[in-house]
């Protein structure tokens, strides 16, 4: 961030735990004298060390991966038999010409 007046305003709002989208909207709503996009604020925040207070002020930490429920597939069909151990009559037939 090249402009110190913008940096000061952004840093103060980050300390108040405003999101980059909110900061961008506030600066745009104040007569539009100072404008900065939320992407620029995110770029600034991600250049900071992980333990910096401005970086910790962001609400979301990223998406967590979904965890599979234990035994989910086994509960789908009770008493199921693998196709490898099924009888010959259950095997798929060959194409008829």
Characterization of the model:
The longest helix has 12 residues, at 4-15. This protein is mainly α and 97 residues long. The protein has helices at 4-15, 20-29, 38-47, 53-56. This is Transposase.
Please outline what is shown here.
The protein is an all-alpha fold and 97 residues long.
Distance between the termini: 72 Å
Radius of gyration: 28 Å
How large a portion of the residues is in β-strands, by DSSP E? under 5%
What overall form do the CA principal axes indicate? rod-shaped
Count of beta strands = 0
Protein name: Transposase
Organism: Rubripirellula lacrimiformis
Key descriptive features of the protein:
single chain, 97 residues, mainly alpha
Element layout with pairings:
Blueprint: H1 4-15, H2 20-29, H3 38-47, H4 53-56
């Amino acid at each position: 961030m090249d402009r110190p007046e913008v940096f000061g305003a952004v840093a103060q709002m980050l300390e108040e735990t405003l999101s980059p989208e909110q900061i961008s909207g506030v600066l745009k709503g104040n007569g539009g004298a100072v404008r900065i996009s939320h992407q620029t604020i995110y770029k600034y925040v991600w250049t900071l060390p992980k333990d910096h207070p401005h970086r910790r002020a962001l609400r979301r930490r990223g998406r967590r991966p979904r965890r599979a429920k234990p035994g989910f597939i086994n509960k789908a069909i009770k008493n199921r038999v693998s196709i490898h151990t099924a009888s010959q009559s259950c095997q798929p037939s060959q194409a008829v010409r």
